[in-house]
Amino acid sequence: MLELDSVRAGYDQIEILHGVDLRVDEGEIVALIGSNGAGKTTTMRTICGILSPTAGSITFRGESIDDEPPHDIVRRGIVQVPEDRDLFTDMTVADNLLLGAQTKTAISNREENLTEMYELFPRLEERKNQRAGTMSGGEQQMLTLARALMGEPDLLILDEPSIGLAPQLVEEVFDVVREVHEQGITVLMVEQNVQQTLRLADRGYVMENGRITMSATGTALLEDDSVIEAYLGV
Ligand code: ATP
């Protein structure tokens, strides 16, 4: 479904990704793990068209997307939940959700999808008329995720969806990821919560210093000594 082949990218003159190869197949949950500053967020931004690769290629369903602007990539069905929440803080929860519907089909289905989001995130329904900026950090994170789902993604890209959340909300985020995946959405996720993520993922990649250093099934990575030592704190 998504394929990165020898992708190089970065900021101004500084190259951060030094030739990244990564693949996500239809129906998978794929995890990208790595230490701080490894280039995980940069990889996500490059897939979504916020950064352009300086070399290599990115294809989605066999078509090149590496020269496309972000809104065209969204139109193809790739929706990202960014690490910084990027909400319209003066608008209500409901209006933020409605703005997540960007494609023609998502716009025509948006009332129905809104009802579904309120089922998935009851807390958002309780607070639908509240200004987004006055929600707690955890609630804003839920809203960001729900808004992305309003875009009816085929491929959902999550950058640290559980960062800074209380344990109960972390569980809720993982439950939502599991549920949307069961509904047929393919997922690529970056998460600090490595153990839980690798348990959920079909496959995972380890990134270090802008390069993929390991790739295996989630289960195999969980049992790998170097992964255990570096990321599972044993
Ligand atoms: P973390 O787990 O800490 O979020 P990450 O693996 O997501 O890390 P990136 O955010 O991709 O890492 O950052 C990779 C490198 O790119 C870092 O050295 C960072 O300082 C640098 N970087 C990130 N954003 C910018 C920017 N806008 N301009 C210049 N350098 C940047």
Automatic annotation (TrEMBL):
What is one GO biological process annotated to this record?
A: L-amino acid transport
Q: What are this entry's molecular-function GO terms?
A: ATP binding; ATP hydrolysis activity; branched-chain amino acid transmembrane transporter activity
In terms of superkingdom, the source organism counts as Archaea
Q: Which UniProt keywords apply?
A: Amino-acid transport, ATP-binding, Nucleotide-binding, Transport
Pfam family for this entry, one: ABC_tran
Query: PROSITE patterns, alphabetically?
Result: ABC_TRANSPORTER_1, ABC_TRANSPORTER_2
Report if keyword Disulfide bond is assigned. Answer: no
Tell me which residues make up the ABC transporter domain.
2-234
InterPro entries reported for this sequence: AAA+_ATPase, ABC_transporter-like_ATP-bd, ABC_transporter-like_CS, BCAA_Transport_ATP-bd_LivF, P-loop_NTPase
Q: Which family does it belong to?
A: Belongs to the ABC transporter superfamily.
Protein name (Swiss-Prot/TrEMBL): Branched-chain amino acid ABC transporter ATP-binding protein
Identify the species of origin.
Halogeometricum pallidum JCM 14848
